[in-house]
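Give me the fold.
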Amino acid sequence: MQLLLSQKEKSLVDDTMSTESPQNILENLTTAVLTFNSKLELTAINPAGEMMFEVSANKVVGQRLADLLPQSQRLIDALNQTLVSRHPFTSRGLQLALPGARTITVDCTVSPLTNSSKSAGLLVELTQIDRLLRLARDENMLDRQAANRAVIRGLAHEIKNPLGGLRGAAQLLERELTNKGLSEYTRIIIHEADRLQNLLDRMVGPYRPMKKQAVNIHAILEHVRRLVLVEVPVGLSIERDYDPSLPEFIGDPDQLIQAVLNIVRNSVQAMDNQGVIHLRTQIERQFTIGSKRHRLVLRTEIEDNGPGIPEEIREQIFYPMVTGRADGTGLGLSIAQDIIAKHGGLIECRSKPKQTVFTIYLPLENGHG
């Protein structure tokens, strides 16, 4: 059966009828279009719909919606209501649970249909908006982090000056003391001043310029892997799934090692040195970071099977001083994000119990590789 078109699509067909057939246009739409009969059995699906559901039309045509989307009762109820009321409806930001444990977010438009036999049916248009939501979230996160780093650097500068004076005064006082027993107090002042100076330096992050050279991401990951396994020789396993076809890119290997090491150590500490870490690499094509679209992007995943990140801090984990551990400083992930941002990239995180995944995106062109 050929798919029926919405009013918008009919208008498009009228404008281009001289060069394109309606079926051709429908097959090239990026919007998933599905039609159902009065029993909510799928009667047709276009190629965009096949891609969205990761199925073949031959296998799913004839299936009931309840079998196609067994965990999306909200959509099923809405379609049943439309069959009765014959009124179209639109739902924004609808989450669909797909087979294979996938969840997507879509804008959904449902329109009632009547074919030549006068039997009722429905046309459903689904536009996936996960990518748009991710872009908005990533851009907002990058803006906030840039503003946050600017505030911290300004604050650190203001603190360093009096801190240096305090340390210098303590050194001079120590030299003038005739009672050497009192020198213990000046040593404490100097030690604590040095500790605060070190904390400020870590909060500000890497301040030296990048020493750019050709970098192999697998050499970076293997260096970190060997280092961590030396630190935790028992109870920790690090599995690898590398794409051997990945090209080299331009970056600072020392800073990238620091960024990856901070993330891996964060995972090890979250698992209390007992668990499995997976390192994965692959290529992403036509990927947007911030407001810039890249033809090729290197994707590196660091996954652990630890307890997960507490929900109350999940959105702030890349900010300095935010940590889920009582003995943590909350600086490791902030520094990692700063280093990756200097390479034109981005770090994202998703977390649930037994699965936390940090994903590093690094562009492979336009001066970055």
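The chain has eleven helices and twelve strands.
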